[in-house]
């Protein structure tokens, strides 16, 4: 808030330091967290795209039985045989799997992908807002530094 007499406030190197700390400790950390969150959403989307591709393969081949490799953890795979591919168990979150037909699973995956895309877009918008805030504060810092340099 400007002083009551209308004079410009005095800025010192400590004020510049506080702004720099705000950028480094608050804004950049907020941006990092948002980008990590968005990357997790992208990983979920990747998993759902893989599942959708598998479902498409099952639908196109019209196989009743399927032989495949299953990741049992830490990139260790074992052979698996699925005797009936007409129904699948799909992980719907919170540790629940739901039995669905191939068509139901395909529709579920499409809806889930659309929701994940909306979530990723919202996080990207927030990240862009934080980036804009960083640029604004950096511009303000440049002006403060210029004012300090001119004063001295």
Plain-language structure description:
The protein has 152 residues and is an alpha+beta fold. It is 65% helix and 16% strand. The protein contains two helices and four strands; from the N terminus they run H-E-E-E-E-H. The chain has one domain (13-61, 87-151): Helix Hairpins (Orthogonal Bundle). The radius of gyration is 27 Å and the shape is rod-shaped. The mean pLDDT is 86. One of its GO terms (biological process) is positive regulation of transcription by RNA polymerase II.
* Continuous helix count: 2
Helix content: 55-70%
How many whole angstroms does the radius of gyration measure?
A: 27 Å
Spatial sequence of strands, sheet with the most strands: 1-2
Order of helices and strands: HEEEEH
By DSSP, the count of extended strands is 4
Distance between the termini: 23 Å
The fold-level CATH name is Helix Hairpins
The domain count comes to: 1
Using the 3D structure, state the CATH architecture: Orthogonal Bundle
Mean pLDDT: 86
InterPro entries: Prefoldin, Prefoldin_subunit_alpha, UXT
GO biological process, one term: negative regulation of transcription by RNA polymerase II
Family: Belongs to the UXT family.
GO molecular function: transcription corepressor activity
Give me some keywords for this one:
152 residues, alpha+beta, Helix Hairpins, two-stranded antiparallel sheet, Prefoldin, alpha subunit, Prefoldin, Prefoldin_subunit_alpha, transcription corepressor activity
